Amino acid sequence: MDIFLLEDDDAIAMGLSYSLENEGYTVTVAKSVSQALEIINKKNFSMYLLDLTLPDGSGYSVCKRIKEIGDFPVIFLTAYDDEVNVVMGFELGADDYITKPFRLKELLVRIKSVFRRYNNDSGDGKIKVKDLVVNTNEAKVYKNGNEIVLTAMEYRLLLILLNNRGCVLSRTQLLENIWNVAGDFVEDNTLTVYIKRLRDKIEENPTEPKYIKTIRGLGYIIENE
User: Which residues are recorded as modified (4-aspartylphosphate) (predicted)?
Assistant: First the structure.
């Protein structure tokens, strides 16, 4: 699969290219917005990894152009993890974001997860489980046709669980995918809080969840229908 990487830091670009190519991917690198637009207007890629801050602009504008061309998967690589930037990325159609500095293993998991979602969704950017519909093109969630407003972190947690439907995800796996635990320690109780908030919004009865189920001693799962 062909991966497009927009990154102006030579060391990061070289390291990522080498690692991704070792995983069997073909990597094309651009170091500026202008160079990126010139490349993506001529060729489509299986995945786009976009840095946000470039010498001549922002990765947001490149993401916007990608989504105009077609519904291709986009992951932002960014030093900004505040909610405003995350939501802006999702609203432009990005599928995920990962905060620098990050571990290669984490990025590879995110890439495979996004690829799996694209292979399993309905083709219109929508993921459907029971009465729940996630429109990834709009970064919006609906239940029985009514929109459920989620925070960026709640939305991201839901996507991770949906992208791994049928698989039990341990608390450690969820923490590693949601936060950069290599750089910042996050209390395990924080995940419990987000799970509860998410259940309160999407479940009819949060004490007897039918979407996000707890597998005692193992973790959480959204089951395949």
Answer: 51
